[in-house]
Specification:
alpha+beta; three-stranded antiparallel β-sheet; 13 strands; elongated
Length: about 180
């Protein structure tokens, strides 16, 4: 049996959980999240222990894999509506600037035109200064996806290290052609 899947997910205070068919709804101080789980799983709320329990109907390979995944996603939903998730990005390069205006992220990262990325609903994107971007939200998948899309607009290059990177990300630097001389 899945070690992760059989652990109950504790329901924190100020969080309400509802299961309707194959859809679980989690509502807390930071928002409301809905997720449709697979039919192979059974999710029920235990009011006595204030926990969500995930069980599986079959014991084949796919159901075993989905068991732990379902429990982990529900745990992330609980964390998201109580504390939220956050990704921080750095913009590195001379003249590289990031600004949030009119619900879109505007980036000047060395191209002829300014890049504009619309901010999806449910996310809070801010720029504490011109070289940092902070993406916050209750949905872990949306936060990570938006941060990855912003990073993909100008990945850090290996020679000078210019581009958009995650905060604390190490960029392997290459020696230029002058090394051979």
């Amino acid at each position: 049996m899945s070690r992760i899947g059989k652990k109950p997910v504790a329901i924190p205070d100020k969080v309400t959980v509802g299961v309707n068919g194959t859809v679980i709804s989690v509502e807390g101080p930071l928002g409301k999240l809905d997720w449709s789980f697979r039919r192979e799983m059974t999710v029920r709320v235990d009011d006595d222990t204030k926990a969500v329990l995930v069980t599986r109907d079959r014991d084949d390979r796919e159901a075993r894999a989905l068991h732990g995944l379902t429990r982990a996603i529900i745990q992330n939903m609980m964390n998201g509506v109580t504390t939220g998730f956050e990704k921080r990005l750095e913009v590195v390069g001379v003249g590289y600037v990031a600004v949030v205006q009119n619900n879109e992220l505007q980036l000047r990262v060395g191209f002829a035109n300014e890049l504009k990325k619309p901010i999806p609903p449910g996310l809070d994107v801010s720029c504490p200064d011109q070289t940092h971007i902070v993406v916050k939200g209750p949905d872990k998948q949306k936060v990570g996806q938006f941060a990855a899309e912003v990073r993909a607009l100008r990945k850090p290059e290996p020679y000078k290290g210019k581009g958009i990177r995650y905060e604390g990300e190490h960029v392997r630097r290459k020696a230029g052609k002058a090394v051979g001389a």
